[in-house]
Amino acid sequence: MKVILLQNVTKVGKKGEVVEVSDGFAVNSLLPAKKAIAATAKNLEALTRKRDSILATKALEHGLLEAAVKSLPDTALTIAVKANEKGHLFSKVDEKIIVEALAKHRIGISVKNVILDEPIKEVGSYSITVQEGDYKAVVPVVIIKE
């Protein structure tokens, strides 16, 4: 019997896949537990529409992020924070602060799109990665003493 998996099932398949399983397994295990639905024409069409919708949403998010990164000024994004004479920051600069600085340039990027290996703790120039799916961009950031 062909079924559409509604969640990941060990040794059977992943959520959204159409798989062939034995009738007994489908009727006695997958269907009653709501882990799968029968692969009827109506359900297959609904699955296709849902996949298309998800792909369109991801493409839109990718396009918006790419446009936002390209709209940054050619110079680096400058963030002024309090620091001591040696250049050590009193508080770290993390993803949230970078997103807030980008918002001042009217660029709306989610915190989840900013990738930092570790929070910035010193004055200087850094390259920050912004990622959405398979799209990556590098944004130059300069941390200066306030």
Features of this protein?
146 residues; alpha+beta; four-stranded mixed sheet; 2 domains; elongated; Ribosomal Protein L9, domain 2; 9 strands
Spatial shape: elongated
Uncertain segments: none
Largest sheet, in brief, is: 4 strands, mixed
Series of H and E elements: EEHEHEEHEEEE
The name CATH uses for the topology of the largest domain is Ribosomal Protein L9, domain 2
| Assembly annotation | single chain
CATH class placement of the largest domain: Alpha Beta
CATH superfamily of the largest domain: Ribosomal protein L9, C-terminal domain
Can you walk me through this structure?
- 33% of the residues lie in helices and 32% in strands.
- It has 146 residues and is α+β, with helices and mostly antiparallel strands.
- The protein folds into 2 domains: 2-60, Ribosomal protein L9, N-terminal domain (Ribosomal Protein L9, domain 1); 68-145, Roll (Ribosomal Protein L9, domain 2).
- 14% of the residues are buried.
